[in-house]
Amino acid sequence: MEAMKRAAMLGVCVGGIWGAYVTQGVLQETLSTKRFGPDKQRFQHLAFLNFAQSVVCFLWSFIMLVLVSPKRTSQAPLWAYWSASITNSIGPACGIQALKYISYPAQVLAKSSKMIPVMLMGTILYGVRYTIPEYLCTFLVAGGVSIFALFKGSVKASKVASPNAPLGYGLCLLNLAFDGFTNATQDSITMRYPKTSAWHIMMGMNFWGSIYMGLYMFGWTSGGFEALSFCKQHPEATWDIFFFCLCGAVGQNFIFLTISWFGTLALTTITTMRKFVSILVSSLWRGNPLTLEQWIGVSMVFAGLSYQILLKWRRQTKKRPLRKKAV
Asked: 263: how many CB neighbours lie within 10 A of its CB?
């Protein structure tokens, strides 16, 4: 009975994460490629999506803390999130901006290559030695992304605003680098303040993210005002942005539930397969046909990621203490 309950809970988490982020991926691709209204204008201010999502996620987490999450003491102070929120604002903005220069499937694959810069930095700077299976995983991922980038799809099928593969992949690399710093800083916060809830982390990160992106969009540049003007002229884009942000908030809910119920390894497995589903949806539904060589590249990437997950599962299983048999 307990096993069936956990299986049902896992199914809810998988369905929630897949549903939220696959839908968000479709909306993200729509906003970066679609021409709105009779004047056929593109939505140029993709960084505005990060600002809007930060505001929605902050409000969502605040409401959940008030209504659902029990009151806790010794929560991390809001100022503890200021540095991690800087990179958490810049990183995703780089990822979204990359969609101006490369296709959505290419962006998903590039952002799946997080292990490559981690292993390179570990080897070069700290002399870390990795196992042969870990190098094999990296080779498959790096080779798959390279094949995908080299064998471009049909020119007619390209919908990106300004095709520029080096710039697009470079922005994805920056996204990965900033994400690495964000994750490390978040880990240090949870170590210093172990009683901090996931909702509080979500609220703190998005509180500062809303401030940073707001200052950038409405102070440093006029992009925020131009985005609002575009939305006023094209209400269809407004709804796409709203549902994009809502999917992000719902997705973060299920991510936190998965971590609390099943751990980070289960989350990694779910999100990895979600990326593959996103590429399938983009290719079959959004009209981004891939060549045979590109499908080979996609298969190599996800073979490497799946093998990496398998290695982690084995290591985790070995660490579990054996139960003593009852005499």
From this structure: 11
